[in-house]
Design brief:
With 178 residues, the chain is mainly alpha-helical. The chain has eight helices and six strands; from the N terminus they run βααβαααβαββαβα.
Length: 178
């Protein structure tokens, strides 16, 4: 299904990835099922084994699937409750994003040993802004697949990941509403 890595490199456990992708396929085949959500796809973790699936390839595919599922979920919510509910969520998301962006860089995210590189995180933040109620940023896919490296005196990976998920979700809501 995905390319295998070299025998001496670690990759994702193929059986776990295949089983997970099969569940996603079942969800796509029957959208009324409740097997999988975008947030589940975005947060999945697999065991690493020697010679497993290439990590970057699997991560990119899952990021694209998460965006597709999220857009579908948003569209279904618009059909069920109308645009007003999604617009309210988007407005709240944009306020949270603005509040974070308005903070001093040293206050945005907690410091963490073995965290993300401050430089790489701040490079992303330099491309994000909220102007007149509109989010300007890279695509949801770019946000989900962005590499932040590692740093012994970096930023909290959990907090940065949560912020990136919030950004991607806001981008998809904004897109669905336009």
């Amino acid at each position: 299904m995905f390319p295998l890595g070299l025998d001496d490199l670690q990759g994702y456990h193929p059986q776990q990835v295949n089983a997970f992708v099969q569940r996603i396929k079942l969800q796509f085949d029957d959208p009324s099922r409740d097997l999988m959500t975008a947030s589940i796809v975005s947060s999945v973790r697999f065991d690493l084994i020697q010679g497993g699936y290439q990590i970057a390839t699997v991560d990119q595919t899952l990021a694209k699937l998460a965006d597709t599922l999220e857009v579908r979920e948003i569209s279904q919510r618009i059909i069920r409750v109308g645009k007003a509910g999604v617009l309210e969520e988007l407005t709240h998301n944009l306020q949270v994003i603005s509040d974070i962006l308005d903070q001093k860089p040293s206050e945005m995210f907690k410091k963490a040993s073995n965290g993300y590189s401050k430089k790489l995180v701040f490079e992303l933040l330099d491309t994000v802004r909220v102007t007149r109620g509109k989010l300007i940023s890279p695509s949801a896919f770019e946000i989900r697949t962005r590499e932040f490296g590692r740093s012994s005196s970096g930023l909290s990976r959990v907090e940065v990941n949560e912020f990136c998920s919030l950004l991607a979700s806001a981008i998809n809501k904004q897109s669905a509403l336009s």
